[in-house]
Design brief:
By secondary structure, the chain is an alpha+beta fold. Helix content is 42%, strand content 14%. Helix 2 packs antiparallel against helix 3 (113-132). It starts with 16 loop residues before the first helix and ends with a helix.
Length: 133
């Protein structure tokens, strides 16, 4: 994690600079913008493929074409994040907690059809979640 600037900085955060340069050099993707998250948000890298599709690299969320600095939003403390990625992260964390709880219940009661059904449903939601955000 590198030092957070008190202003919008179009340069690549130094702590992810080598990674972003490697993406540029070794993949067919064009890197549009990135942020390390500065310990508050996950690292994000917005890329464009040869077909013109724009998405966030780690979450694979489609973002659509925008102005370069329009992908990020600033929170009240000046930290930048991509709202769609943050919604996915929060939803994933919630669902993962539910899955863990159901798995623990199934360990205690392996024959429970109700818990098995709920666990299957939550696992299905995790698969389609990025499309729902």
């Amino acid at each position: 994690m590198c030092e957070k600037k008190s202003y919008y900085n179009p340069e690549i955060d130094t702590c992810i600079q080598k990674f972003v340069e490697r993406i540029k050099r070794l993949t067919p993707f064009k890197t549009l913008c990135s942020c390390c998250g500065h310990g508050k948000y996950p690292t994000t890298v917005v890329i464009k493929d040869k077909q013109g599709n724009v998405f966030e690299l780690f979450s694979r969320l489609p973002l659509g074409e925008k102005k370069r600095n329009s992908y990020y939003q600033s929170d009240k403390n000046g930290f930048y994040f991509i709202p769609k990625v943050e919604r996915l992260r929060k939803a994933s964390n919630f669902i993962n907690k539910r899955i863990k709880s159901l798995e623990e219940r199934l360990e205690r009661n392996p024959e429970s059809k109700r818990f098995q059904g709920k666990l299957a449903a939550y696992n299905e939601i995790m698969i389609i979640l990025p499309e729902m955000i």
